Amino acid sequence: MKKVIIVGATSGIGREVAKMLLEDGWQLGVAGRREEELNVLKTLAPERISTEVLDVTAADAPQSLLRLIRQTGGMDLFLLTSGIGFHNVELQPDIEIKTVGTNVEGFVRMVTTAFHFFSEQNSGHIAVVSSVAGTKGMGGAPSYSASKRFQNTYIEALSQLSRMRKLPIRFTDIRPGFVATSLLDKNRRYPMLMDVEYVARRIVRALKKRKRIAIIDWRYALTVFFWRLLPGWVWERIKM
Predict the structure, then answer these.
(1) How far apart are the first and last CA of the chain?
(2) Among candidate residues 9, 55, 47, 52, the one with its CA nearest the CA of residue 27
(3) 194 pairs with which residues across the strands?
(4) Global model pTM greater than 0.85
(5) What is the Cα–Cα distance from 109 to 61, expressed in whole angstroms?
(6) Is residue 41 a contact partner of residue 15, using CB atoms and an 8 Å limit?
(7) Please, what is the Cα angle at 203 between 116 and 8, to 5 degrees?
(8) 163-171: long-range pairs with CB below 8 Å, 24+
(9) CA-based diameter of the chain, in Å?
(10) Taking the C-alpha atoms of 22, 26, 27 and 33 in order, what is their torsion angle to the nearest 10 degrees?
(11) How far apart are CA 190 and CA 167, in angstroms?
(12) Is the pLDDT of residue 15 over 70?
């Protein structure tokens, strides 16, 4: 039975993907900050789900992740869905720093721990949920878009590093657009808003195919294509 560890499984995309992989017969190790939500997930299949309370911003998060891997009996796939983001046109420093703490520092803690585990195991698949926001710097969410670009580049670097070290580790960078989760501001309207179950199904499909980069969905793939064509002076005049 294949084993997956999902960090950020207590809500949104992580929870939906966990449910779908459970239906596909995977053994699950799920982690997140809210113990009560982890316990709810565990009731779906107590014999196939292990849980661990974990905060990616905590210094001991790597130890918590390794403990969950042991409880699960190993790991074939690691999926990181934890992340935060804010619309911050006022550029409040505490919001920017908080975003970096989760999306950069927490991200590195988790991904490097998974990389070292798979290096010793000599196999594995690391997948992360980043965002199409990493394509360009967005004035409405500077720290969020910059942190997502960091994630894109970091996974690219680890993919190269694994080849340099001749390690059979696969990588998937999942880049959705706006998804209807608690991460979004309920007072704002979002274009091309996607249902979380719709997004989770496409993520599961991308994981099975072991895609290197998976933009969710075709509308955002087209959007990103045109974003990349825009010269800097044009992009800077667009309100995001």
Answers:
(1) 44
(2) 47
(3) 179
(4) yes
(5) 7
(6) yes
(7) 55
(8) 165/119, 167/118, 167/119, 167/122, 168/122, 168/123, 168/124, 169/115, 169/118, 169/119, 169/123, 169/124, 169/125, 169/126, 170/124, 170/125, 170/126, 170/210, 171/125, 171/126, 171/127, 171/212
(9) 56
(10) -50
(11) 41
(12) yes
**CB-based burial, 24-49: b 16+ in 10 Å, e otherwise:** eebbbbbbbbeeebbeebbeeeeeeb
The residue assigned the tokens 């045109």 is 226
For 145, the enclosing helix (H) or strand (E) is helix 142-164
User: Residue 187: is its pLDDT beyond 80?
Assistant: no
- The amino acid that residue 2 corresponds to is K
Taking a C-beta distance cutoff of 8 angstroms, is the pair 28, 79 a contact? no
Task: Write out the H or E segment, with its range, that includes residue 222.
Answer: helix 218-229
Cα dist from 230 to 135, 139, 178, 216, 219, whole Å: 11, 16, 21, 21, 17
Reduce the DSSP state of residue 4 to 3 states and report it: strand
Q: What tokens appear for 151 in the block?
A: 């994630």
Amino acid at 153: T
What are 36-85's pLDDT values in tens digits? 999 999 999 999 999 999 999 999 999 999 999 999 999 999 999 999 99
